[in-house]
Amino acid sequence: MSELHVYNTLNRKKEKFEPLHPPHVGLYVCGPTVYSDAHIGNVRTFTSFDMIYRYLSFLGYKVRYVRNITDAGHLTNERGEGVNRMESQAKLESLEPMEIVQKYTVGFHQVMELFNAVPPTIEPTATGHILEQIQMIEELIQKGFAYEVNGSVYFDVKAYNEKFPYGELSGRNVDELIAGYRDLDGQEEKRNSIDFALWKAASPEHIMQWKSPWGQGFPGWHLECSVMSTKYLGEQFDIHGGGMDLKFPHHECEIAQNKGACNQGGARYWLHTNMLNFNGQKMSKSFGNSILPMEFITGNHPLLDKGYAPSVVRFLFLQTHYSSELDINIKGLQDAEKGLKRLMDALQVVQGFASTDFNKEETSLGKDIQVLCAGCKENMDDDFNTAKTIANLFELSTIINSLKGGQIKFHEVSKEALQRMQETMNDYLIKVFGLKPIEETTSGKLGDIMQVLIDIRSEAKGKKDFATSDAIRNKLQAAGIQLKDEKDGSVSFSFL
Ligand code: AMP
Ligand code: ZN
Predict the structure, then answer these.
(1) pLDDT at residue number 238
(2) Could you give the angle at which helices 386-405 and 364-381 cross, rounded to 10 degrees?
(3) Given CB 3.0 to 4.6 Å as the disulfide criterion, which of 288, 301, 416, 474 pairs with 295?
(4) Is 285 inside a domain boundary?
C-alpha cells in the first residue's frame, strides 16, 4: 500500500506525510478577503484545498480544517501600506464596513456551496481575534523582534534575521530585498524598508479601528493567520495552504511572526496552489479579466460561449495538478464537459450492473482492474495527483462500457474486481473529487431561460408594446435579476 507524500514548498521537495498527532491532522488555509466577490481563480484555490481535505478525510484522518475570513481591512501595498480596501469598498457601496463583510462572506459561502466545497470545521475571522493579535504583537516586542513608532508597530526583519533565517520559504535574501525596496516611499517610520506592519495607527476618520496599548489602530494582514492558525491548531501543526501568490510576503511574514513569538514556524508542510489564467494572463480583478462564478454557470460573459455546470469547472481544475498553472479556454471547458459526462455515465452504469455470471477465479482482466483501482490511490498519494487518477478512471470507464456493450463478457471478470471498480469510481468521483452528475446542476439552463425572456422583451419593444417589455424587466428585477441594455444593442443580466 502506498503512503501519502506531499510536495513541501518549505523544503522544496516531496516528503512523506507524517502528521504530528495521528489520526488527527491540522490544516490551515488562508481564506478570502471579503470586500469583493470571489472570482473563478479564487475558486480554483479553494476547491483544490477542498479536494485535499476530502482526500485526507478519505484516508481516515480526522482533519481540523481552519480557513479564515480576512475582514479587518486589507492594505493594497504588500508591505502593509496604502489604501484600506474594505474602507474604499464601504464608501463606494455606501455601506457599513461590517455590511460589506457580511455581504461578501455570504456570497463566498454561496459560491463554495455551488462548487460543492465542504465547509471548513472552523472559520475564524480577523475582527474576532483582535485581542489575540495584540497579544502576539506584545510578545514580539518583548522578544526584540518588533518596535513601536508613532502608534504603529513594525516587525524588525533584520533583528529577526540575526536569530532565524528570513526568506526560507520564498528563497529570498534580506539584503537583496532591502535593496529592492529602497526607492519606495512611505517607509520613513520603519527602521528598514523590509519591515512590515503588525499594527497601524489609525487616523480618526479611519472606519475600522480598535483600541490597543499603542493607541487606536488596526492589525497588519499577515498577523491574523499566525494568530488564528496557532490558536486553533497549536504552535506547531501539520499543513498550511494558500495560493502561490501568497508565498511572499504573506506566508514568509507568517513564518517570521510564528518563529519570533513561539520559536517555531507553525506549519511543517506548506502546500501552494498555482494560478488560474485566462488566455495566458493571471485572472485578477485588477487585470479586468476576472470571471465571476455565476457568470460561468449562466454563460453570461463575453469570453464564454455558454454556461458550464460547477462540476464541469471543478473537473477541469482537477485535470491539472494543483501546483501547475492552468489556462482556461473554451475548448478546455468543452472537453471537460464531455469527459465528466463520460465518467458520470460510467459510474451510473457500473452501479447498475446486476449480473451474476462472474468468474469464480481472478482473471487477467480482473487483475488489470485491480491494478487500475489501486493506481488511483497511488496517484493521489503522490502529492494528490488528480490528473493521473482521472486517467485511471477513464480506463476503468472504457472497461465498464465494454461490459455494458457486450464486447467484454461478465465471466471475464470476478465479482471482487467488479465490486472494486464500483467502489473506486464512486470513491474518487463523488467522495474525493466532489463531482456531481451534470444533469443535477443548472448547466447553462438559466442562461437559456434568460435568453428566451430577453428575446420576448426585444420583440415586444420592437412592436412598441412597452407594457410587456417593462413588465418583463420589472418582474425580473423583483426576482433579483437586473437586465442591462448594452451600447451594442445586446442585453445582459446580472444578479442583484
Ligand atoms: P483573495 O480573496 O484575493 O485574498 O484570494 C483568496 C485566495 O485565492 C488566495 O489563496 C489567492 O492566492 C487565491 N487566488 C487569487 N487569484 C487567483 C488565481 N488567479 N488563481 C488561483 N488562485 C488565486
Ligand atoms: Zn493567510
Answers:
(1) 98
(2) 160
(3) 301
(4) no
